[in-house]
Amino acid sequence: MRACLTKIGLLLAALFALLPQAALAQRAGELIEASPVADAPADMRAWRIRYWTTADNNQLIAVTGMVIAPKNRAPSPQVLAWTHGLIGIAQRCAPSLGTTNFTMIPSLSEVISQGYTVVAPDYPGLGSDMVHPVLVGTSEGRSVLDAVRAHRAIAEADAGTRFAVWGESQGGHAALWTGQLWRDYAPDLQLVGIAAIVPPTDLPRNFQEGSDARVRALLTSYTATAWSRYYGAPMSTFGSRQTQNVMTRLADNNCVQFDAKPRLGTIIGILAVQRAIRRLDLASVEPWGQLMRQNSPSPAAIPVPALIATGLRDVIVAPAVVEDFARAACAQGKKISYFSFENGEHSTVARTEAKTVLDWIGARFARYPAPSNCGEF
Protein backbone atom coordinates (compact mmCIF):
# COMPACT_ATOMS: atom_id res chain seq x y z
CA MET A 1 0.00 0.00 0.00
CA ARG A 2 2.79 2.41 0.95
CA ALA A 3 4.60 1.67 -2.32
CA CYS A 4 1.39 2.29 -4.23
CA LEU A 5 0.82 5.64 -2.52
CA THR A 6 4.42 6.60 -3.22
CA LYS A 7 3.94 5.88 -6.93
CA ILE A 8 0.73 7.92 -6.99
CA GLY A 9 2.52 10.78 -5.26
CA LEU A 10 5.36 10.70 -7.78
CA LEU A 11 2.87 10.59 -10.66
CA LEU A 12 0.97 13.62 -9.33
CA ALA A 13 4.22 15.51 -8.80
CA ALA A 14 5.24 14.81 -12.38
CA LEU A 15 1.83 15.92 -13.65
CA PHE A 16 1.95 19.20 -11.73
CA ALA A 17 5.46 19.82 -13.03
CA LEU A 18 4.09 19.71 -16.58
CA LEU A 19 1.35 22.28 -15.90
CA PRO A 20 2.01 26.02 -16.39
CA GLN A 21 2.84 27.66 -13.09
CA ALA A 22 0.18 30.32 -13.64
CA ALA A 23 -2.49 27.66 -14.01
CA LEU A 24 -1.47 26.18 -10.67
CA ALA A 25 -1.51 29.55 -8.94
CA GLN A 26 -5.18 30.25 -9.70
CA ARG A 27 -5.09 33.79 -8.40
CA ALA A 28 -6.98 36.71 -9.86
CA GLY A 29 -4.75 38.46 -12.38
CA GLU A 30 -2.56 35.41 -13.07
CA LEU A 31 -1.95 34.48 -16.70
CA ILE A 32 -2.98 30.92 -17.61
CA GLU A 33 -1.71 30.92 -21.18
CA ALA A 34 -0.77 33.25 -24.01
CA SER A 35 -0.90 32.12 -27.64
CA PRO A 36 0.73 34.28 -30.35
CA VAL A 37 -1.65 35.56 -33.03
CA ALA A 38 -0.16 34.71 -36.41
CA ASP A 39 -2.26 37.16 -38.45
CA ALA A 40 -1.62 40.32 -36.43
CA PRO A 41 -0.93 43.47 -38.47
CA ALA A 42 2.67 43.93 -39.59
CA ASP A 43 3.56 46.54 -36.98
CA MET A 44 2.09 44.59 -34.07
CA ARG A 45 2.60 41.51 -31.94
CA ALA A 46 -0.48 40.00 -30.36
CA TRP A 47 -1.42 37.17 -28.04
CA ARG A 48 -4.72 35.54 -27.21
CA ILE A 49 -4.76 35.11 -23.47
CA ARG A 50 -6.56 33.17 -20.77
CA TYR A 51 -6.31 34.46 -17.23
CA TRP A 52 -7.97 34.27 -13.85
CA THR A 53 -10.43 36.84 -12.58
CA THR A 54 -13.08 36.99 -9.89
CA ALA A 55 -16.79 37.00 -10.66
CA ASP A 56 -19.07 39.32 -8.74
CA ASN A 57 -19.93 36.38 -6.45
CA ASN A 58 -16.18 36.15 -5.67
CA GLN A 59 -15.79 32.84 -7.50
CA LEU A 60 -12.50 32.46 -9.39
CA ILE A 61 -13.11 32.04 -13.13
CA ALA A 62 -10.93 31.67 -16.24
CA VAL A 63 -11.62 34.26 -18.94
CA THR A 64 -10.11 35.39 -22.23
CA GLY A 65 -8.85 38.45 -24.06
CA MET A 66 -6.08 39.77 -26.26
CA VAL A 67 -2.84 41.69 -25.72
CA ILE A 68 -1.41 43.79 -28.56
CA ALA A 69 2.05 45.41 -28.42
CA PRO A 70 4.49 47.19 -30.77
CA LYS A 71 6.43 44.69 -32.88
CA ASN A 72 9.84 46.19 -33.44
CA ARG A 73 10.54 47.89 -30.14
CA ALA A 74 9.97 47.46 -26.47
CA PRO A 75 6.62 48.82 -25.28
CA SER A 76 6.59 52.10 -23.41
CA PRO A 77 5.58 51.94 -19.74
CA GLN A 78 1.95 52.68 -20.53
CA VAL A 79 -0.97 50.30 -20.87
CA LEU A 80 -4.22 51.12 -22.62
CA ALA A 81 -7.11 48.85 -21.64
CA TRP A 82 -9.69 48.77 -24.42
CA THR A 83 -13.21 47.81 -23.33
CA HIS A 84 -15.40 46.87 -26.29
CA GLY A 85 -19.03 47.71 -26.89
CA LEU A 86 -21.94 45.30 -26.85
CA ILE A 87 -21.38 42.58 -29.45
CA GLY A 88 -23.67 39.87 -28.11
CA ILE A 89 -23.84 37.43 -25.23
CA ALA A 90 -22.88 34.16 -26.95
CA GLN A 91 -19.46 32.67 -26.27
CA ARG A 92 -18.57 32.82 -29.98
CA CYS A 93 -19.03 36.62 -30.05
CA ALA A 94 -15.69 37.18 -28.24
CA PRO A 95 -13.44 39.59 -30.18
CA SER A 96 -10.31 37.59 -29.34
CA LEU A 97 -11.56 34.49 -31.19
CA GLY A 98 -10.78 36.14 -34.52
CA THR A 99 -9.20 39.36 -35.73
CA THR A 100 -12.04 41.67 -34.67
CA ASN A 101 -9.86 43.64 -32.27
CA PHE A 102 -7.58 44.76 -35.10
CA THR A 103 -10.47 46.51 -36.86
CA MET A 104 -12.70 47.36 -33.88
CA ILE A 105 -10.21 49.25 -31.70
CA PRO A 106 -10.22 52.86 -32.93
CA SER A 107 -6.98 54.12 -34.52
CA LEU A 108 -5.15 50.99 -33.41
CA SER A 109 -2.11 51.60 -35.63
CA GLU A 110 -1.73 55.08 -34.14
CA VAL A 111 -2.14 53.68 -30.63
CA ILE A 112 0.61 51.12 -31.25
CA SER A 113 2.89 53.68 -32.93
CA GLN A 114 2.68 55.75 -29.75
CA GLY A 115 4.14 52.80 -27.85
CA TYR A 116 1.08 51.60 -25.97
CA THR A 117 0.48 48.01 -25.05
CA VAL A 118 -3.23 47.38 -25.56
CA VAL A 119 -5.03 44.98 -23.24
CA ALA A 120 -8.44 43.98 -24.60
CA PRO A 121 -10.52 41.72 -22.32
CA ASP A 122 -13.46 39.82 -23.80
CA TYR A 123 -15.42 39.94 -20.48
CA PRO A 124 -16.63 36.76 -18.75
CA GLY A 125 -18.78 34.49 -20.90
CA LEU A 126 -17.42 35.79 -24.21
CA GLY A 127 -14.77 33.29 -25.24
CA SER A 128 -15.27 31.37 -21.99
CA ASP A 129 -17.82 28.72 -21.09
CA MET A 130 -20.20 30.57 -18.78
CA VAL A 131 -23.07 33.05 -18.91
CA HIS A 132 -21.96 36.48 -20.12
CA PRO A 133 -23.20 38.86 -17.41
CA VAL A 134 -23.76 41.77 -19.79
CA LEU A 135 -23.81 45.17 -18.05
CA VAL A 136 -22.95 43.59 -14.70
CA GLY A 137 -20.50 46.21 -13.49
CA THR A 138 -18.46 44.27 -10.97
CA SER A 139 -17.90 41.38 -13.37
CA GLU A 140 -16.84 43.70 -16.20
CA GLY A 141 -14.56 45.88 -14.10
CA ARG A 142 -12.74 43.03 -12.40
CA SER A 143 -12.08 41.30 -15.72
CA VAL A 144 -10.48 44.51 -17.03
CA LEU A 145 -8.27 45.00 -13.99
CA ASP A 146 -7.15 41.38 -14.01
CA ALA A 147 -6.37 41.51 -17.73
CA VAL A 148 -4.02 44.44 -17.06
CA ARG A 149 -2.37 42.42 -14.31
CA ALA A 150 -2.11 39.29 -16.45
CA HIS A 151 -0.45 40.96 -19.43
CA ARG A 152 2.70 41.49 -17.36
CA ALA A 153 3.53 37.78 -17.57
CA ILE A 154 4.17 38.21 -21.32
CA ALA A 155 7.76 39.46 -21.35
CA GLU A 156 7.54 41.04 -24.82
CA ALA A 157 4.42 42.99 -23.88
CA ASP A 158 4.95 43.92 -20.23
CA ALA A 159 4.34 47.65 -19.99
CA GLY A 160 4.10 47.96 -16.24
CA THR A 161 1.28 48.95 -13.95
CA ARG A 162 0.28 52.46 -15.13
CA PHE A 163 -2.80 52.25 -17.31
CA ALA A 164 -5.75 54.11 -18.75
CA VAL A 165 -9.06 52.56 -19.75
CA TRP A 166 -10.97 53.53 -22.89
CA GLY A 167 -14.30 52.04 -23.88
CA GLU A 168 -17.40 52.61 -25.98
CA SER A 169 -21.03 51.72 -25.29
CA GLN A 170 -21.02 48.66 -23.00
CA GLY A 171 -17.28 49.27 -22.84
CA GLY A 172 -17.88 52.80 -21.57
CA HIS A 173 -19.94 51.24 -18.79
CA ALA A 174 -17.09 48.77 -18.17
CA ALA A 175 -14.54 51.61 -18.13
CA LEU A 176 -16.47 53.50 -15.46
CA TRP A 177 -16.84 50.35 -13.38
CA THR A 178 -13.11 49.66 -13.78
CA GLY A 179 -12.46 53.01 -12.15
CA GLN A 180 -15.09 52.44 -9.48
CA LEU A 181 -13.49 49.13 -8.42
CA TRP A 182 -9.82 49.95 -8.98
CA ARG A 183 -8.63 51.18 -5.57
CA ASP A 184 -10.21 48.37 -3.59
CA TYR A 185 -9.74 45.52 -6.04
CA ALA A 186 -6.38 46.26 -7.70
CA PRO A 187 -4.36 48.79 -5.66
CA ASP A 188 -1.20 47.30 -7.18
CA LEU A 189 -2.14 49.05 -10.45
CA GLN A 190 -2.05 52.79 -11.14
CA LEU A 191 -5.03 54.13 -13.07
CA VAL A 192 -4.31 57.48 -14.74
CA GLY A 193 -7.55 58.17 -16.60
CA ILE A 194 -10.93 56.90 -17.80
CA ALA A 195 -12.38 57.58 -21.26
CA ALA A 196 -16.03 56.51 -21.50
CA ILE A 197 -17.64 57.02 -24.90
CA VAL A 198 -21.46 56.83 -25.20
CA PRO A 199 -21.63 54.88 -21.93
CA PRO A 200 -24.86 53.51 -20.42
CA THR A 201 -24.74 55.20 -17.01
CA ASP A 202 -28.29 55.10 -15.66
CA LEU A 203 -29.64 51.73 -16.73
CA PRO A 204 -33.30 52.39 -15.80
CA ARG A 205 -33.29 55.44 -18.06
CA ASN A 206 -31.12 53.81 -20.73
CA PHE A 207 -33.65 51.04 -21.23
CA GLN A 208 -36.44 53.60 -21.72
CA GLU A 209 -34.93 56.60 -23.44
CA GLY A 210 -33.08 55.21 -26.46
CA SER A 211 -35.06 56.53 -29.41
CA ASP A 212 -34.62 53.50 -31.71
CA ALA A 213 -37.27 51.03 -30.54
CA ARG A 214 -35.89 48.19 -32.66
CA VAL A 215 -32.43 48.47 -31.16
CA ARG A 216 -33.99 48.72 -27.71
CA ALA A 217 -35.83 45.45 -28.36
CA LEU A 218 -32.59 43.67 -29.26
CA LEU A 219 -30.66 45.13 -26.31
CA THR A 220 -33.49 44.16 -23.97
CA SER A 221 -33.37 40.63 -25.39
CA TYR A 222 -29.64 40.39 -24.72
CA THR A 223 -29.90 41.72 -21.18
CA ALA A 224 -33.06 39.85 -20.23
CA THR A 225 -31.66 36.53 -21.43
CA ALA A 226 -28.31 37.05 -19.70
CA TRP A 227 -29.75 38.30 -16.41
CA SER A 228 -32.38 35.56 -16.29
CA ARG A 229 -29.57 33.02 -16.47
CA TYR A 230 -27.11 34.89 -14.28
CA TYR A 231 -29.39 36.30 -11.59
CA GLY A 232 -32.45 34.09 -12.05
CA ALA A 233 -34.63 37.11 -12.91
CA PRO A 234 -37.96 35.97 -14.40
CA MET A 235 -38.44 36.10 -18.15
CA SER A 236 -42.20 36.00 -17.52
CA THR A 237 -41.94 39.78 -17.05
CA PHE A 238 -41.81 40.10 -20.83
CA GLY A 239 -45.03 38.29 -21.63
CA SER A 240 -45.93 35.00 -23.22
CA ARG A 241 -43.71 31.95 -23.50
CA GLN A 242 -43.53 32.64 -27.23
CA THR A 243 -42.13 36.13 -26.63
CA GLN A 244 -39.63 34.76 -24.13
CA ASN A 245 -38.44 32.17 -26.64
CA VAL A 246 -38.05 34.79 -29.36
CA MET A 247 -35.95 36.96 -27.02
CA THR A 248 -33.75 34.03 -26.07
CA ARG A 249 -33.20 33.02 -29.70
CA LEU A 250 -32.31 36.60 -30.64
CA ALA A 251 -29.79 36.77 -27.82
CA ASP A 252 -28.22 33.38 -28.43
CA ASN A 253 -28.00 33.57 -32.22
CA ASN A 254 -26.85 37.12 -32.96
CA CYS A 255 -23.44 38.69 -32.60
CA VAL A 256 -23.57 42.41 -33.44
CA GLN A 257 -22.07 43.28 -36.82
CA PHE A 258 -22.60 46.93 -37.70
CA ASP A 259 -21.42 46.44 -41.30
CA ALA A 260 -23.73 43.50 -42.07
CA LYS A 261 -27.44 43.38 -42.80
CA PRO A 262 -29.49 41.43 -40.24
CA ARG A 263 -31.14 38.20 -41.34
CA LEU A 264 -34.86 38.18 -42.07
CA GLY A 265 -35.56 35.98 -39.05
CA THR A 266 -33.70 38.43 -36.83
CA ILE A 267 -35.73 41.36 -38.15
CA ILE A 268 -39.02 39.51 -37.60
CA GLY A 269 -37.96 38.56 -34.07
CA ILE A 270 -36.96 42.12 -33.19
CA LEU A 271 -40.29 43.47 -34.42
CA ALA A 272 -42.15 40.87 -32.34
CA VAL A 273 -40.22 41.82 -29.20
CA GLN A 274 -40.69 45.52 -29.95
CA ARG A 275 -44.46 45.06 -29.97
CA ALA A 276 -44.43 42.91 -26.83
CA ILE A 277 -42.45 45.36 -24.67
CA ARG A 278 -43.67 48.67 -26.08
CA ARG A 279 -45.53 49.59 -22.87
CA LEU A 280 -43.16 47.88 -20.43
CA ASP A 281 -41.28 50.08 -17.95
CA LEU A 282 -38.76 47.45 -16.90
CA ALA A 283 -37.27 49.60 -14.15
CA SER A 284 -40.60 49.55 -12.31
CA VAL A 285 -40.68 45.74 -12.17
CA GLU A 286 -38.63 43.87 -9.58
CA PRO A 287 -36.08 42.38 -9.47
CA TRP A 288 -35.24 44.03 -12.78
CA GLY A 289 -35.32 47.58 -11.43
CA GLN A 290 -33.02 46.79 -8.53
CA LEU A 291 -30.59 44.95 -10.82
CA MET A 292 -30.48 47.96 -13.13
CA ARG A 293 -29.82 50.33 -10.27
CA GLN A 294 -27.08 48.22 -8.68
CA ASN A 295 -25.28 47.90 -12.03
CA SER A 296 -25.39 51.62 -12.86
CA PRO A 297 -21.99 53.26 -12.23
CA SER A 298 -21.84 55.93 -9.54
CA PRO A 299 -20.78 59.45 -10.54
CA ALA A 300 -19.42 59.83 -7.01
CA ALA A 301 -17.05 56.88 -7.46
CA ILE A 302 -14.90 58.19 -10.32
CA PRO A 303 -11.40 58.11 -8.77
CA VAL A 304 -9.31 59.79 -11.49
CA PRO A 305 -9.82 62.33 -14.28
CA ALA A 306 -12.42 61.15 -16.79
CA LEU A 307 -13.37 62.00 -20.35
CA ILE A 308 -17.06 61.36 -20.96
CA ALA A 309 -18.48 61.75 -24.46
CA THR A 310 -21.77 61.42 -26.25
CA GLY A 311 -22.95 61.93 -29.81
CA LEU A 312 -26.04 64.03 -30.42
CA ARG A 313 -27.19 61.60 -33.13
CA ASP A 314 -27.01 58.60 -30.80
CA VAL A 315 -30.35 56.76 -30.91
CA ILE A 316 -29.22 53.93 -28.61
CA VAL A 317 -27.77 55.61 -25.50
CA ALA A 318 -29.72 58.83 -25.05
CA PRO A 319 -27.33 61.82 -25.01
CA ALA A 320 -29.28 63.45 -22.17
CA VAL A 321 -28.56 60.49 -19.89
CA VAL A 322 -24.81 60.73 -20.53
CA GLU A 323 -24.81 64.48 -19.99
CA ASP A 324 -26.72 64.16 -16.72
CA PHE A 325 -24.16 61.64 -15.48
CA ALA A 326 -21.30 63.98 -16.37
CA ARG A 327 -23.04 66.85 -14.55
CA ALA A 328 -23.57 64.64 -11.50
CA ALA A 329 -19.88 63.74 -11.49
CA CYS A 330 -18.99 67.43 -11.69
CA ALA A 331 -21.27 68.09 -8.71
CA GLN A 332 -19.20 65.54 -6.80
CA GLY A 333 -16.03 67.51 -7.52
CA LYS A 334 -14.66 65.14 -10.16
CA LYS A 335 -12.31 66.24 -12.95
CA ILE A 336 -14.52 65.75 -15.99
CA SER A 337 -13.83 66.57 -19.64
CA TYR A 338 -17.24 66.32 -21.28
CA PHE A 339 -17.70 66.23 -25.05
CA SER A 340 -20.96 66.30 -26.98
CA PHE A 341 -20.22 65.68 -30.65
CA GLU A 342 -22.84 67.22 -32.92
CA ASN A 343 -22.70 64.57 -35.65
CA GLY A 344 -21.70 61.69 -33.39
CA GLU A 345 -23.56 58.41 -33.83
CA HIS A 346 -23.48 55.54 -31.36
CA SER A 347 -21.59 53.08 -33.54
CA THR A 348 -19.06 55.52 -35.02
CA VAL A 349 -18.23 58.30 -32.56
CA ALA A 350 -15.44 56.38 -30.83
CA ARG A 351 -13.67 56.12 -34.19
CA THR A 352 -14.37 59.57 -35.59
CA GLU A 353 -13.25 61.27 -32.38
CA ALA A 354 -10.35 58.95 -31.52
CA LYS A 355 -7.71 61.68 -31.84
CA THR A 356 -9.42 63.79 -29.19
CA VAL A 357 -9.49 60.83 -26.84
CA LEU A 358 -5.90 59.74 -27.51
CA ASP A 359 -4.60 63.27 -26.98
CA TRP A 360 -6.42 63.38 -23.65
CA ILE A 361 -5.10 59.96 -22.61
CA GLY A 362 -1.56 60.90 -23.62
CA ALA A 363 -1.73 63.96 -21.40
CA ARG A 364 -2.74 61.78 -18.44
CA PHE A 365 0.30 59.55 -18.92
CA ALA A 366 2.46 62.66 -19.25
CA ARG A 367 1.12 63.79 -15.86
CA TYR A 368 -0.20 67.11 -17.20
CA PRO A 369 -2.89 68.74 -15.03
CA ALA A 370 -6.26 67.31 -15.95
CA PRO A 371 -8.66 69.77 -17.61
CA SER A 372 -12.28 70.12 -16.61
CA ASN A 373 -15.17 71.86 -18.32
CA CYS A 374 -17.59 71.40 -15.45
CA GLY A 375 -20.00 74.31 -15.32
CA GLU A 376 -19.82 74.80 -19.10
CA PHE A 377 -22.45 72.29 -20.16
Quick summary of this structure?
The chain is an alpha/beta fold. Helix content is 40%, strand content 17%.
3D architecture notes:
With 377 residues, the protein is α/β, with parallel strands linked by helices. Helices cover 40% and strands 17% of the residues. A 9-stranded mixed beta sheet has the order 1-2-3-5-4-6-7-8-9, sandwiched between helices. The relative contact order is 0.12. The model is unreliable at 1-19 (pLDDT under 50). Keywords: Hydrolase, Signal.
Topology, please?
Elements lengths: L1 H17 L2 H5 L5 E6 L7 E11 L5 E11 L8 E5 L16 H5 L3 H6 L3 E5 L15 H15 L10 E7 L1 H16 L4 E8 L5 H7 L3 H18 L10 H13 L10 H13 L11 H7 L11 E6 L7 H13 L4 E6 L7 H4 L1 H12 L12
Parallel strand pairs: 4-5, 4-6, 6-7, 7-8, 8-9
Antiparallel strand pairs: 1-2, 2-3, 3-5
Helix pairs in contact: 5-6, 8-9, 8-10, 9-10
> How far apart are the first and last residues' alpha carbons, in Å?
78 Å
How are helices and strands ordered from N to C? HHEEEEHHEHEHEHHHHHEHEHH
Helix segment count? Answer: 14
Shape: globular
CATH architecture of the largest domain: 3-Layer(aba) Sandwich
Mean pLDDT, rounded to whole units? 93
CATH superfamily of the largest domain: Alpha/Beta hydrolase fold, catalytic domain
Low-confidence stretches: 1-19
Keywords: Hydrolase, Signal
Signal peptide: 1-25
Protein name: Alpha/beta fold hydrolase
GO molecular function: triacylglycerol lipase activity
